[in-house]
Every structure is written in C-alpha cells, then in structure tokens.
Amino acid sequence: MRVTVNSLDPSSFLKAAKKVRAYENRVVSNNREFLKDLALEGIMEASARLGDEYVAPDYVKPQLSTLNPHVMNGKSKGDMSITLRLQGKQAVFVEFGAGIFYNGGKGMIGDSPHPYGVELGFTIGDYGSHLGRNETWTHAGHVTHGTPAAMPLYHAGVKIKQNARILALAHFRSY
Amino acid sequence: MAEITNNPIIEIYERFKTELVEADAIPAENISFGKSDVGAILPWISFKPMTNYTWLQARDLSNNECGIIVNVQVECFAKKESVAMRLEDETKKVLFNMGFYSTGFAQRFKNNEVHRYIGRYDLRYTGSLMDLSET
Questions:
Q1: Buried-most residue among A39, B5, B110, B119 (CB within 10 A)?
Q2: Interface predicted TM-score (ipTM) of this complex, two decimals
C-alpha cells in the first residue's frame, strides 16, 4: 500500500484516509480467514485422533468444535482469536488418558504421557479417587481399563504451529 | 505540542490525522508522533500496537472441556517523511500465540456422596513473531 498526501490538494487527505481504511479492513478480513484455516488444520488433526484406535471402546468420544474468529474484549480489530474445543463428559480423559492399563503401567502414576499433563494437574491415576492406579476398576456399573491419552488437541496444536507460517504467508504476503 | 503549532508540516500531519480519525480509518490512539532525522515531526500510524503474549484470564468454561485458543495479532504500520507526506508499508508482522486450556472434574467422597467440582484449568500462551517481510 502506498498513500500520498498532497498538501496543496485538500481532497487528497480524504482519499488517503479512505485508502488506509480499506487497507485495514483487508488486513482484518485476511486475519479472519487465516484463523479459520489454522483452526481447520487443527480440527483435521484432532478428528483423526478421535478414531477407535485412539479411544477406548467404553469411553464416550467428545465433540470437536470451533468458535468463530472473534476480537477479544478491549482489543483492536487486528487482534483476533479462534477457539478449538473438545467437549464431552470424558473429554479430559480422552485428551490426557486415564488409568495405567493404556498409559505405560504403574511407572506412569503421577506422571503423564501428555506434555501438558503434569503442568495442568491431569496425571495418570490421580483423578478423583485414584482408581486409575489399578489395571481395571468399576465405573458407572461397568468394568473399565481406562483410555489412552489420545491427545487430539495437543497434536492439533502441534499441527497448527507447524503450518502457521506457511498459512500466514499465503494470507498476508500479497497485501 | 504548543510550541510547534505554527509549523506548517505539523499542521499537515494534524490534518491528515484528523481525516483518518473522522473517516474511522484508524483509532486516534494508534496515531502518534515521532521525530525524523530531518527534524520533521512524523505521524506514526499503526493499526495496533504489538503486545507481548500474556496469560489469559479465566473464561467461562464448561466442565470437561479442553481447548486451544489461537490468537493472531497483525501489525501493519507505515511511517514516512516528506512535506507532501507519503506513507508506505514498513513491516509485515504477525504475532502468533497459542494457548492450551483444560477443565475437568474430579470426584471426592464425602459422607458417601460424590461431589463434583471443576478441576484445574490453565491456559498458557506460547508466542512467536513472524516477520513476513523476510521472505
């Protein structure tokens, strides 16, 4: 973008202002599309990790969704966020894993196969009444072995980070 | 600024700034002044100030939810000098942040009843600044 203002031409000020405004609108629009594409990368990766090979058959698979790109309160239009969500009554178990059976045995008690598990306090065998320290336990009337740490969102995040620069260039290089 | 109000260059810049704001092209707070090496006062126009990544505050989270918040801040600012002012792109930068959060329930037994409560959640941002003008 190039904007020129001629001090001898009063109308050039308004023209320049309009040009800047159009430029900003284009930046905001590109940013919105950029975020949607980032989210799509994440959703595709996370979806693949909610398949039967990643989630124990007795666990309810959580739902993946995204919120639309949005400007956080008090932020400028050029500052937008998008949220990927994994929701469901067993979402946390599917993300971080539950029980030692699928998650590395007794040596993993208090630890986590998930890179954020220890930091966030979701470690193997430490939920609730610590039943996950056993190979099996009874939950809601049935015997369970727990579920592997499928980490759909963690891997979605890795994928998004890997592709962020390429996508940013695609959306912003030409303007 | 009182001592330089009669400077014609300043008047041009002030007028341009006023037009930008009145045209709703850019917020007034994003226009500031600096000095060039030729001594003129220059407008510095920015769509937004780049900010460091921060921890997000607690949000309304449902139980048993994990999520990622991807935050992108785009900065495009222009700065140029001359009496007949010319503005050009100077940088193209994208600040890319990503946070991971999680809520969960834990169970505790009290008087033989199960009490649920929201477990720990956290949101951590990792940020990186991508300068798209480099490639």
A1: A39
A2: 0.80
Q: Are A14 and B20 in contact (CB under 8 A)?
A: no
Residues 80-99 of B with CB under 8 A from A: 83-89, 92, 94, 96, 98
Segment A72-105, tens digit of pLDDT: 666 667 778 888 989 888 888 899 999 999 999 9
Distance between CA atoms of B72 and A15, rounded to whole angstroms? 29
> Same structural domain for residues B121 and B105?
yes
Cα of A95 to nearest chain B Cα, Å: 8
Whether residues B21 and B62 fall in one domain: no
- Digit-coded pLDDT (tens) for B71-82: 787 765 555 444
Spatial separation of the C-alpha atoms in residues A87 and B58, rounded to whole Å? 17
* pLDDT 10s digits, B77-100: 555 444 555 566 555 678 787 777
SS3 B116: strand
Q: Which chain A residues have a beta carbon less than 8 Å from that of B122? A: 116, 119-121
Among residues B129, B90, B87, B74, which one has the least CA distance to residue A25? B74
With H, G, I as helix, E, B as strand and everything else as coil, classify residue B112.
coil
pTM: 0.76
CA distance A32 to B54: 21
Q: Which of B129, B48, B23 is nearest to A78 (CA)?
A: B48
B72 shares its domain with B121: yes
A82–B24 CB contact, under 8 Å: no
pLDDT digits (tens, 9 = 90+) for B43-58: 545 554 444 433 333 3
Question: Which of B116, B74, B81 has the alpha carbon at shortest distance from B97?
Answer: B74
Q: Is residue A168 within 8 Å of residue B132, measured between CB atoms?
A: yes
Domain that holds residue A168: 22-172
Query: What's the domain count of chain B?
Result: 2
- Which residues of chain A are modeled with pLDDT < 50? none
Query: Tokens 């935050």 appear where?
Result: B71
